[in-house]
């Protein structure tokens, strides 16, 4: 090989090595943000929910380093792939099939009253949920839904825009109120009274989104505040179920902090923690999992499914919970 050719080859290798190291450094920065919870600010609050996609993409620099025998890069890239796998893979592993008192819960975000009442009604007739929580409940949507008489009981806090929520149930609902009047969106609370069975506290969850705005709709700071206002899990009193659009994925540290107080995420429990729920209306953003059903640690889950409803950018989610008798 001539000297000029050798110099050119070494220059190419240096450039390639620089690209690989830059790729690995970018993945490492993401791992630090996700692992240490540096997601309370823009743009990390918006980006960190795409961690499952990055976990797959992180294989590219690892494979490239192995093919080109860039061993030091390969070692670092391999460690990062393993860490990202530890973040993501457990959500795909079911924990078992529990037995006990069953409660079927459905949650749906109407997209400010645009989601099809008729399609949701058909899903309700098929799945027969005991409880339905609704987010972005507008007065017009609530009136159309109530006219179908699918549930005998409800606790509605319908409002214009995105702030309203509600709960419908087969059994009486008492003690209806908002979770915290300081929350930007109303988050309805009620106690489900099932004949001959223990009471269940139900929350229609809908914290503000971590959007890049400075008004009352949302911001990362307000989003964190709303998540912190949701009640922590407790092992005393009625079992608590929170279902809805949490505007947060399992990769968001404020959501994990809430779960870590003692909640079980139904989708994660049955190995479907990566089933996407938003956006599902042709938006170009990759879909992520921000709609959840949580039950405190005295409960469990045996199934979870998500269904597309015309008009809404959120999928309706349905889970069978297993509660203590």
Automatic annotation (TrEMBL):
Keywords: Endonuclease, Exonuclease, Hydrolase, Membrane, Nuclease, Transmembrane, Transmembrane helix. It holds the Pfam family Exo_endo_phos. The chain crosses the membrane at residues 12-32, 44-66, 73-93. SUPFAM superfamilies: DNase I-like. GO terms for molecular function: endonuclease activity; exonuclease activity. Residues 118-314 form the Endonuclease/exonuclease/phosphatase domain. It comes from the Bacteria. This is Uncharacterized conserved protein YafD, endonuclease/exonuclease/phosphatase (EEP) superfamily. It comes from Cryptosporangium aurantiacum.
């Amino acid at each position: 090989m001539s000297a000029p050719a050798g110099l050119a080859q070494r220059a190419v290798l240096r450039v390639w090595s620089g690209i690989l190291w830059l790729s690995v450094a970018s993945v490492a920065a993401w791992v630090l943000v996700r692992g240490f919870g540096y997601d309370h600010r823009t743009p990390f609050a918006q980006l960190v929910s795409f961690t499952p996609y990055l976990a797959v993409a992180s294989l590219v620099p690892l494979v490239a380093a192995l093919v080109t025998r860039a061993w030091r890069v390969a070692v670092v890239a391999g460690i990062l792939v393993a860490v990202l796998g530890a973040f993501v893979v457990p959500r795909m592993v079911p924990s078992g099939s529990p037995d006990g008192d069953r409660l079927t819960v459905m949650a749906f975000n109407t997209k400010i009253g645009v989601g099809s009442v008729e399609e949701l009604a058909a899903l309700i007739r098929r799945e027969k949920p005991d409880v339905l929580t609704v987010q972005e409940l507008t007065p017009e949507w609530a009136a159309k839904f109530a006219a179908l008489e699918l549930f005998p009981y409800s606790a509605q806090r319908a409002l214009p825009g995105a702030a309203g929520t509600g709960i419908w149930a087969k059994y009486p609902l008492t003690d209806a109120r908002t979770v915290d009047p300081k929350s930007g969106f109303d988050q309805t609370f009620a106690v489900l009274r099932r004949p001959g069975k223990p009471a269940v506290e139900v929350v229609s969850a809908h914290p503000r989104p971590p959007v890049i705005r400075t008004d009352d709709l949302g911001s990362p700071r307000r989003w964190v505040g709303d998540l912190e206002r949701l009640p922590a899990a407790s092992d005393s009193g009625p079992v608590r179920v929170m279902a809805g659009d949490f505007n947060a994925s399992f990769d968001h540290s404020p959501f994990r902090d809430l779960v870590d107080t003692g909640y079980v995420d139904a989708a994660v429990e049955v190995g479907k923690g990566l089933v996407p729920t938003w956006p599902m209306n042709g938006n170009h953003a990759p879909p992520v999992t921000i709609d959840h059903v949580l039950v405190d640690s005295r409960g469990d889950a045996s199934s979870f499914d998500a269904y597309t409803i015309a008009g809404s950018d959120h999928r309706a989610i349905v889970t069978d919970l297993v509660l203590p008798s």
